[in-house]
Amino acid sequence: MNEHRLDHWQRLSPWAVVFLFVRGVVRFARENIPVLVGAGAGVAVIERIGMVEVVLAGSAAFLAALLLSLLYYRRFRFCFDGDVLLVQKGLFERTELKVSAGRVQHVSLEQPAYMRPFGVVRFSADTPGGVTAELELPGIPSSVAEALRRALSTPDAGAPETVTEQTDEAGPQRRELFRIRPGALTLHGLTSNSIYLVAALLAPVLQPLERLGRPYLENLEDAAWVERAGDAPVLVALAVLLTLLLVLMTAAVIVAWLRFYAFTLSRTGDRLVQSSGLFNRQEQELSGAKLQTVEWVQTALGRLLGLGYLVCRQYGGLPQAADHAGRNFLVPGLMQPRGGELVQEFWPGLALDAECSRVHRHYRRSVALRLVPILSLVTVVMAGLSGRVDVLYGLVAVPVLAWVLGHLRWRAVGWRTDGPYVVVRRGLLGRRTVTFPLINVQAVEVRQSWFQRRRGLATLLLTPASGPEAIPWIPVEQALALANVTLYQVEMRGADPAVD
Amino acid sequence: MSQEPFNPPVSPEGLPALEAVPLTPVSPRFAPYRVLGTMLFWMPLAVAVALLPVGPELPWPVRAALGGAVLLVGVGVAVLAAIEARRRAFGLRQEDVIYSSGLLVRRTTILPVCRIQHVETVSGPLERLFGLVRLTCFTAGGSSADLVMAGLRSETADRLRQHLLHRIREGSTADGPPTDDNP
Fold first, then answer.
1. Which of A168, A498, B77, B92 makes an SS bond possible with B177, Cβ 3.0 to 4.6 Å?
2. Residue A411 to residues A284, A429, B17, B162: CA-CA distances in angstroms?
3. ipTM
4. Nearest to A490 by CA among B97, B137, B24
5. Helix, strand, or coil here: A460?
6. pLDDT tens for residues A361-374?
7. Contacting residues of A for B114, CB less than 8 Å apart
8. Domain extent at residue A367
9. Rounded to a whole number, what is the distance in Å from the CA of A219 to chain B's nearest CA?
10. Residue A341, Cβ neighbours under 10 Å: how many?
11. Does A419 map to a domain?
């Protein structure tokens, strides 16, 4: 039986060198290749310098990356002393990190496909501190990672002196809350916003593809079917559009399968654990006490199909960041009733589908008035760029479009309190419904514009530790009453148990 | 249950009312500080527009008029900044700090003392010239939840900081707020 001691300094697994090397190469490629390929500069550089020199330079860079990975591995060591995880690392600058078990809010174990045969995982943990305050062990045996996770999850238990490959300690029972089915995963891919992300990622590749395919297209000019296609340009345009859409949809489904394959969400005591991934298996653990908000998200297509996903946000999350970014915890492919049930797992007694109060109708006018100058500017810029004066006729439609968008926005925005919780909904065609207990609020702001003061309205901003949530254009009495109740709840509760 | 929410019965009438809290204006020196700060930004801009060859060759009167227009905008902004500065105010209750700012859009921010992680006072050279200090209360919620109280006299800021640090140390034990020394 393989045995490790956590309370002594130890190194990463030797296989971590592979992980460090591959990650360095991937990062370098991601940051530099699109620039070279996208602009066609790579080909120009190779032609100017010569293929042999480029291969030699590439080999030198390869060896340098390997050497740096080895050096990094040699200088990296860690131990778990008492309830503190210590890490010493650094290539040119020595860094020592200390994280107390009680401060850890989120633990993640990641296992890329090429590390699976060696039983090595990437371990990371973060605290409610800064956005980048992450502690990482890039390549340790999975048994050590499991032991570290247990030790960090139960700080009072202290550090286990030894860790064996087979641990069967008695502890809280693990209960499965949700397991995704293949159909739901496919639908999640189709309805999630990743289709736009895929489109954005493909955009820089289109120009090089067009350049590569140009000689082939020129040869096709004389083909009979091309001439026939020229007779029905609308049909051709529709076919191209449909093909592009199908490609994007397929890519979005593939992305969903890669990321969320075999997704399971389970609970062990106060800890929520999710695992997913086809090639890159990832297991994330989140402390329930440090959970700040739970958001039910439905895209426009998702609303039609009654499908959505949950985003659990923690301390230090970025409010505008992508749903799956950083410390956010995403539960995909949920039908609406199942979403409601899971929300009750996080916030007992909260009904997700209850009716929300609409904000004042003046909000619609405010949104429309803000949109008019923006849309007018866009129209003028489009007219300028195209050089066509008739585009300016679009200015007539601007107020109508602004009003329609304002109306859709107003219909989407709503709020309500439900016992100790507050629910805030927003969107345009889709819906995002944020739920959180009032006691999670860090700061309260009552905001009144000149127009709102005249109408007796206000915008209330409640800020949990994951970012501000606004309830716009409600009667000032309601805003003040909710602010007073929130402050009462927070102040009677006292210091934040999650960070103290 | 992941988190047990605090949910005692509450009578809305019995709650401490935010709107009833008397707020204390910030230092009267904050208005001239804002005017000077704004003009220090706009005056060099006006001079640059008047003297530097921007765009096609323009006769001197036109350049001077352009510079004057920029200066006029600067003066307007400075006047608005001074009016806004005079409307800034703060308040301190047993359990929270209140800060009000803004002219067209009024913002009243309330930060519970129990949420403050640490307190910092900062003053730039221009602020030191006017004896002013900025007091920042940091929370665990990141920059969006932090409270920056600008325009405090240094003595007020120091006493406020001491009071808040004491409250953070002591938790929610009773402690009288410091009296403000604004005239």
1. B92
2. 36, 9, 31, 47
3. 0.84
4. B97
5. strand
6. 999 999 999 999 99
7. 490-491, 493-496
8. 362-409
9. 49
10. 14
11. no
